Amino acid sequence: MKSLLPAWRRVGSVAALCLSYCGIAHAQLPWETPLQTLQTSLTGPVAKAIGVICLAISGAMLAFGGELSDFTRRILMVVLALSVMLMANQFMSIFG
């Protein structure tokens, strides 16, 4: 019977340690607030405005740009893709 007592103490101490870590895990970390602010800014009306402006400018440049170099066309395609990605959240929220 004495040999089981230290084993139960170990199990109990490990369980208590795990429960204390679970309480610590729900504490807010110092970098969560700035990241939450950035997420709110990138998914709100700021992102919609930036996306619409970039979409309009890059589309107009591709349509009326005339003879643009290959590098410029690629940069405009990247800007166009980024603006569509920024607007995707608002676009998907329209449909449900």
Any overview of this molecule?
Helices cover 82% and strands 0% of the residues. It is mostly helical and 96 residues long. It has a domain at 34-96. Helix 3 packs antiparallel against helix 4. The longest helix has 25 residues, at 70-94. The mean pLDDT is 74.
Short synopsis of the structure:
By secondary structure, the chain is mainly α. It has helices at residues 4-25, 32-43, 45-64, 70-94.
Task: Report how far the terminal alpha carbons are from each other.
Answer: 63 Å
Portion of residues within helices: over 70%
Oligomer: single chain
Number of contiguous helices: 4
Number of strands: 0
Largest sheet: none
Structural class: mainly alpha
| Overall geometric form | elongated
| Radius of gyration from the alpha-carbon trace, in angstroms | 27 Å
Mean pLDDT: 74
Question: How much beta, percentage-wise?
Answer: under 5%
List the secondary-structure elements in sequence, H or E: HHHH
Poorly predicted tracts of residues = none
